[in-house]
Design brief:
0% strand, mainly alpha, transmembrane helix, 72% helix, 212 residues, 8 helices, single chain
Amino acid sequence: MYWRPRNPNRSTDRPGPRRLPRRLVQLYAGLVLYGITMALFVRAELGVIPWDVLHQGLSRQLGVSMGTVVIAVSLLLLLLWIPLRERPGIGTVSNAVVVGLVLDATLAVLPPVESLPLRVLFVLAGVLLNAVATAAYIGVHLGPGPRDGLMTGLVRRTGGSVLIVRTSIEVTVVLAGWLLGGTVGLATVLYALAIGPLVQVLMPRMSVQLGR
């Protein structure tokens, strides 16, 4: 999940105590939905989202669940926040744990599918619902996810553009994951091309106005 805060000097956790219950509900609903959509891509077997290529490859090499790898990688990335001087929020910690748990739980109840039309439907639903989940999670302003913070921290420290830094990170994790046995396919490409525009359209509808 990538985001770019409108004002990096503004606290993500302070304002709007009356809106906090709504923000928490939206946060966890978004994270749960995000984990479910990750499972849809896995079961479709047409390629997973960029970071999940790495997660899947590590899962296959280490013999542990993919959700466990998601949590472990998230915690390792948080260590990289220290030199980057990024600040975690409740959304950061929640992202690091909830998404991986939901991914494993969904894979446990969602069986593999053989029908190609159903697999394509899984991918299309995964892209759309992942965009909803991303907009919901970002829109509550409760802290970036571990992968988001790595990107924004590197942008700030290096002075590079969001596009270049994000692309460099994603190309690196996709290549590493592919070498480890992760699945790269048409769904990976579709996600990479579609997720940004979809989130851009959904964000105004999902963003919580903190000052009101």
